[in-house]
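User: I'm writing a tutorial on reading structure tokens. Could you give me a worked example: one chain, its sequence, then its tokens, then a sentence or two explaining what the tokens reveal?
Assistant: Sure. Here is the example chain.
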Amino acid sequence: MTEKLATTEEREEVAQALERAAAAIRKGLECNITWFAYCPLDGIEDHGNRHAAETYALECTDFNTWGTAGDEWPEGMEQVSWGLYVPVQQAKEVNRTETPEGPCDYQCQYTLVPASLERPEDA
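And here are its predicted structure tokens:
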């Protein structure tokens, strides 16, 4: 589940994303950051707020949730966690060409750029 960031460039890119997120949080901005919880039984689940993510993770640590026979705690219990998704990059439209006579109004391509933490207006 975990992966070491192999290059200096990867480490710097992630560090910058975390610094942008920390600055936005300190300013009290509405951020495009999502709460999540992870349980090996169910995988990653998005939650609307910290309390819901933390509560779900805590519920996942209940022995009865795992349905394990016997008296031993199941493998993977230490993987139960909750936290925040912090976007590192996001898609941005580039090379837009209007095509009023074509099957679509326009054509474009997309590239990945450093993520904006501002919440989209339609969210």
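What the tokens reveal: DSSP finds three helices and five strands in the chain. The beta strands are 34-39, 43-47, 81-85, 89-98, 106-114.
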